[in-house]
Amino acid sequence: MKFTLALLVLLFGFFSIGQNPLNIPTAITNTAINLTLQEGTTQFYNGVTTNTMGANGSLLGPTVIMNQGDNVSITVDNQLTDSTTIHWHGLHVSPENDGGPHTVIQPNDSWNPQFEVLDKAGTYWYHPHLHMQTDKHVSKGIAGMILVRDSEEAGLNLPMDYGVDEFPLVLQTKGFDANGQILVHTDLDTSVMVNGTVDAVTDFPAQVVRLRVLNGSSQRVMELGFSDNRSFSLIGTDGGLLSAPVNMTRYRIAPGQRADILVDLTTSQGDNFQLMSFASELPNALYGASQPGMGPGATGSLPDYTSNPLNGNDYQLLDINVTAATANPIQTIPSSLASFTPIQEADADVTRTLTFTSAGQMGDLSGPFLINGSSFDMNTINYTIPLNNTEIWSLTNQTPIGHPFHIHDVQFFILDINGNPPPPELQGYNDVVMVPAGMGNVRFIAKFTEHTSDTVPYMYHCHMLTHEDDGMMGQFLVTDPNASLETIEGPTWNIYPNPSSGSLTIDVEKKSTLNITDASGKLIRTVEAEGVVNIDLNAQPGVYFITDENGNSRKLVLY
Ligand code: C2O
Ligand code: CU
Ligand code: CU
């Protein structure tokens, strides 16, 4: 009996009685932002006390509203017993401010990034990013939304009254153990919640309402739509507004992705309908479909997957009641939105090829997964990108499951998916893209502007947090090869090409001793050069310095 009950709880989540009003996180609109990371408890289910983590509370965190051009100063105070980091997902900030796995905040310590908001109006978010601990800290509750506003958006007459006609919806599934505690790295994510509320119900006014949607789940892909199949307008994706609204009845959203949606409720007062994930319509080989993988033996390795009732079945996210309109409601949807020019393929300086494979047997769904044959290593720089490079990244997925690929620092434009140009809803700014299983290919293009560091890298990774924690991640430096270094006296030598793959020509006027060091100052090679010398610096990509006996120094970039 006890066993049966425990099993039921595992399979179907805790029993909940009735519905709970949708939590709307408070908004911070100051440019001085304080986030205190803390532990606490949450009652997701009546009578069940769950240990959770949050920012400025015991679960999730406030919505931070920023304006383009603001200079923000954020204090992240870590009151957890764990060390962690906080990453501003989607924002174009310097590597030191990005909050990746190298920027650790120790318990009882605080971190104070300060930056100018350069981003376009869009829906961003923040979450921990400590290597191998991201899923733990996110699943236990730390995540919050960032809304950036800009003047172009302000001219569009869009709903922008937070909590009145504009609603943040953080969609998540979580798994609980028999004691009501949150599971980490689980495929038993049987509980559905919006803004941390299970069985959520809310009122929306009978006018155009705006939903700022984030899929904050660790692994699950959702197929969004409404129970009565009413249509909605997608107006924005990860990093900005689209050029025009796209009218749809379904929108697929993968972990880490955001959607900016308008729903016209002007003639809907009194209606009751539900926001759903139509998971029965998900194609196989996405986490959340009835089969998470494709190919022979692909499903065998996620043993808990088939017992999770959310997989391949439609489920409710939010129950909606339409009530009277507010004063001065917005009643129309603009026909055009942002103006921008996607980066053209012909502008690319380089194409990088990334291939995803299973570390174990082919077809193994359980991971770990590799990128170009490697697992994440904190001490390896995978790419060095010269400042202002325009790059095509070509991603090929040789594994049996789709991976939502994310890159820091930039918003990209999708060039093609399996050789086909992207549909209108994927023609805007994105920082996460689903790379389909079974040899699926995605190419995107991005330009790496403004921010550089010779030592602190940016990340790229799968946004399924289990995969990321298991090493499906890499890192890159953006560096300025032309940054001027110390010149004590006119150097009598030259070294080229720069950047290079490591094959270098040194041209010295008079005999010189040249020391090549890495970014940490470690000596890599000493060259006694006279005349023209060719060397091959067999070293990993990164930033190096070459210095002569007089202290004249130049930066060398290896890609
Ligand atoms: Cu949302 Cu590198 O993460
Ligand atoms: Cu990110
Ligand atoms: Cu993945």
3D structure, described in words:
The structure is a single chain. This protein is mostly beta strands. It contains four helices and 38 strands. The strands form seven sheets. A seven-stranded mixed beta sheet has the order 14-13-12-16-21-18-19, with no helix packed on it. It starts with a helix and ends with a strand. Bound molecules: CU-O-CU linkage and copper (II) ion (2 copies). The site of one copper (II) ion has 4 residues, from strand 7.
Describe the secondary-structure layout.
Layout: H1 2-12, E1 20-21, E2 27-28, E3 32-45, E4 48-55, E5 63-67, E6 71-78, E7 87-89, E8 110-111, E9 114-116, E10 122-127, H2 134-139, E11 144-149, H3 151-154, E12 166-174, E13 191-194, E14 197-198, E15 200-205, E16 208-215, E17 222-226, E18 232-237, E19 240-248, E20 251-253, E21 258-264, E22 272-277, E23 315-323, E24 350-358, E25 369-371, E26 383-386, E27 390-397, E28 403-407, E29 413-417, E30 432-435, E31 440-447, E32 458-462, H4 465-469, E33 473-479, E34 493-496, E35 503-518, E36 523-536, E37 542-547, E38 553-558
Bound molecules: CU-O-CU linkage and copper (II) ion (2 copies).
